[in-house]
Amino acid sequence: MHKHQLNARRVGFHISALALAVAITPLWASEAEHVNVVGQAASLDQALKEQRRADQIESVVHADGVAQLPDQNAAEAVQRLPGVSVERDQGEGRFVSVRGLGPDLNSVTINGTLVPSPDSDRRAVALDVLPAELVQSLSVVKTLTPDMDANSLGGTIEVESLSAFDHKGLFYTGTGEASYDDNTDQTSPKFSGAISDLFSLGGGVDNFGVAAALSVQQRDFGSDNVETGGDWDFSDGDRLQQFEQRDYDIRRERSGLGLNFDYRPDDYSSYYLRTLYSRFKDTETRNAAGVEFADAQLAGEQGEAEGWRELKDREETQEIQSYVFGGERFIGQWTLQAQAGYSKANQDTPGHIGGAVFEGLDDFADSGFSNTKKPRLTIGDDFYDPSNFALDEVEWAEENTEDTEKNIKLDIARDYDLAGNAAQVKFGGKLSRRDKDNDTNIWTYEDLGDFGFSDAQLNMDAFSKGDVDYSLDRFGPGLSAGRIEDLISGLDRNSFYNEEESRVNDFKMSEDIDSAYLMHSLDIDDLSVIVGVRYEGTKFDAKGTGLRDGNYEAIKSKNEYHNWLPGLHLRYQLDKDTQLRGAITHSVVRPTFGQLAPGFVIDGDEASFGNPELDPLESRNFDLGIEHYLGRAGVVSAFLFYKDIDNFVYNADLSGTGAWLDFAEANTFANGDSADLYGLELAYSQKFDWLPAPWNGLLMGANATFSRSEATITGSDAATGGSRSRDIDLPFQSDTIGNLMLGWEDEKLSLRLSANYKSDYLYEVASINDKAHDQHVDDQVFVDFSAGYFLTKGLQLRFEAQNITDENYYVYTGSRSYNAQYEEYGPTYKLGLTYTNF
């Protein structure tokens, strides 16, 4: 059978996702059949075998590898791979960047079908909605073959769930765990489990498999924050206009369920149904206290300031459902594969306090700050007295976003002999239909004194509660969401409906993609070649509402484009353990839904609007590398990559040009001409099993990615009234990303220390002539530790510690000295017990 056909089948080579909890130390099984060994080295060895035989350049982490690391979710697990970094939210990894390209420029698939995004303005999928326990393997494919969707510039993150054929007979496991958050002194539970078995149907033996996995977690935690938002005045020294202290109190609940069926009636056919449901619920209370100085001040100066306090209290639920039905049939030298997929992602944020603002009754004298990096407030005691504040307004908000993806695809392959060499021709097509809707409603309760409320009823005294537990500085009293809700509950909310904010943010978008491809594979001695071309035709429709000088307008927009995407992949076997890889590929990524949004607001000579007529980003990608395998769990590799990107999308001010000639501001999104990204990926891992005991238990892994990017943006120059351009780095692109892991294991005990490093990167671009106010995220190093000990052959005790160095999140304005945002999380400790039966 042709090797590419073997790759397509992917039968029997994965360790079940739900061996996760026992994946720390080895068990014993015969390697003549299926490899049931689990442990640090076994996990890495399985991942490297898959990486080695892949047609594409890819990096893999197996489910048992996920469990070995103190990772809350799939995003944190995949960041251990070369060239991969994550954006963090409240200290947890969420969105994945690959080779320096932002999360919206990558795609995520579950069991071969695209995962839509529950966020209203993004394409990026926050992988923290996927509990690690439901994942069998994670792959980051960095060079796309023509039979793959071409919708990623950095890489495609492929998530595979479990199959009963990953185990021989009955398998089950269960885990109970408690985690402690050092920042809030909260302890939280987690439970997970799985079961799979094989059954005999008809005349077959063990030809029908059923596997199920369940994970339920509740995590209570919080963070302390201080931020300026970049409101610095650099024209006369380093003066600060305003800043705010924020305290977050969060309850995060994750639950996931996977139920999979496999049927293999004979040696020539197989059918499967993969289902996955994930629910992610965040309940967040944010207390804020801030000041705005009458005149921008230097550190150490004092003057008058306005003060305010604010409460945000919301519950947000994100759900992802994925259903994939498919099959494969071998007919002589022909292979037929068919698959139908349906995925739905939605985010529901029911009615909540979007912001309840209490303003100071008078200015606060002798106000100032110290420390430009982590500002501390200097102010009198009257700022901490709730009677000095009164309710100004309450924003009540609700939002619902729904994103669905339906697709069907067919792949046909024919193996044949070409001049004595194994060859395969493969062709197929895919139809994809995606719909994204957003519905937002806002009510703004203000001027409440006109509705019969007395000054005493609106005074903060009536809504305050005990002092907020805030570690960065003195904070003062918090606010009661219940009392604020009681105040506005008796009012006619129709009188406070904010039509502008509600209608302009609503949209309906559809994206239909028809694709087809033709590719040919050829093996000539030690050389493997894949050459082909993919066609993708896109039809885009958007409907929304605009507001022009107080009048609403219905907006409809259409766009259509066609892309031909050739590709070439080469793999040459230098010797039995060394291979060269090269690839020339093309890819296309559509702009984000926020960038394509049809809504607009035009008020006099100021305008802000989305741009549904944006062109897609297109990239020509060049990859060249070498891999040398060092036996079990060992590899050393190096890859060079270069990406030439056209139609890069950026924030733009079009005022003073074209239709916006007479406007002071016209903020939107525009296509740039081109951007370049180039870099080097290095990776090394090895099990030192040739050393004498106990050193033969040592395991080491390290990888580093060094990259550079260049992009040019243009916009109007407020100083001259003309236009100008400047060079920037690609947003979210870190010049250096690295991982280091040191491990040790024997038959009972396993220890692992890991560190993840990400250098600083451009987060947000300011106006074209104001580089000093660009915002950057500072470099970070996260250090984690895990340990496991088998009390019996099937019962394991685990301890894990996350962020043991208490790394913070810091965004700076222009240079590291000037705060935009600073946030602390503290470490987290976990203790768990797992029982597994093979």
From TrEMBL:
CDD domains hit by this protein: ligand_gated_channel
Main location group: membrane
Membrane topology: Multi-pass membrane protein
Lineage top rank: taxon: Bacteria
Keyword Transport belongs to the record: yes
PROSITE patterns in the record: TONB_DEPENDENT_REC_3 (PS52016)
Annotated TonB-dependent receptor-like beta-barrel domain residues: 368-804
Gene3D superfamilies the UniProt entry points to: TonB-dependent receptor, beta-barrel domain, TonB-dependent receptor, plug domain
Protein name: TonB-dependent receptor
